[in-house]
Amino acid sequence: MDKRLTPARPDLAAAHLKGKVEAAHFVEGEKCMSLCGHTAMRARPESHFSQETELLCGELFTVYEHKNGWAWGQIGSDGYVGYVHDVSLGAYAEPTHRVTAHLTPVLARPDVKAAAVNLLPMNALLRLQKTQGDFFETNAGFVSYRHVVPLHEHAMDFVAVAEGFLHVPYVWGGKTFAGLDCSGLIQTALTAAGIHAPRDTDMQEKALGLPVDRKDAQRGDLVFWKGHVGVMTDSETLLHANAFHMEVFAEPLDQAARRIQATAGQVTNIKRL
């Protein structure tokens, strides 16, 4: 089993894995969610350990252990397993709406001059309680009705969503306007368009689309290397979050491929959804 997606350790595992994995103890999970805009998830319970991905506000996070200020569990949307700071979590509330803005402030009162108590990224989830003028009162506070939509509404063009992140900083494990990595950009854009996508590049290459030839490449095709992914904005241009430019950057695919070949080899797939 992929350890990134399997809530199991030698000492502890999820109850539903009993009989499938070996562990000293099996426990039922506790439904929680992040109360922060975005929370770093790490492979180990150490603040200076590298970020693997991020848990967004309102996302379901099933916790199997609380220990020493950390919670170990699994993100509901993509199945990723890891550790987040316990202080960032609260009881799970079934969401009704999703954030569509790159960032939206959560206000203490339904007033543009009110204190902003949080900033929520695109795809953060909220539970609508009632409407007050131009604001929705949610479980997190007050947000502009222009920045959220019901869960069943999605962006029409995931590439346009990705293009909106042009020049956003490259951050390993990130998936927000504050910084994201190559697969985080693709997952974020596809999620906004209502398309489920795994978190990491290898998972995306395996799960998404059907192969096409380079000569037939068009807008929306995903281009994969070992450990890297981008999306075509037209037949020649690749948009990708990358560590060379340290940002989301658009450039000719052939130019990117020549440079990436030195570290990641040849393009392994071009896939169309």
For this entry, give a set of tags.
single chain; 273 residues; mainly beta; 4 helices; 25 strands; globular; 13% helix; six-stranded antiparallel β-sheet
- Give the overall silhouette: globular
Q: Please report the number of helical segments.
A: 4
SS content category:
mainly beta
Main beta sheet? 6 strands, antiparallel
- Looking at how many chains there are and whether they match, the oligomeric state comes to single chain
* Poorly predicted runs: none
What is the H/E string? Answer: EEEEEEEEEEEEEEEEEHEEHHEEEEEHE
Mean pLDDT: 97
| Number of DSSP-assigned strands | 25
Distance between the termini: 26 Å
Tell me the β content. 35-45%
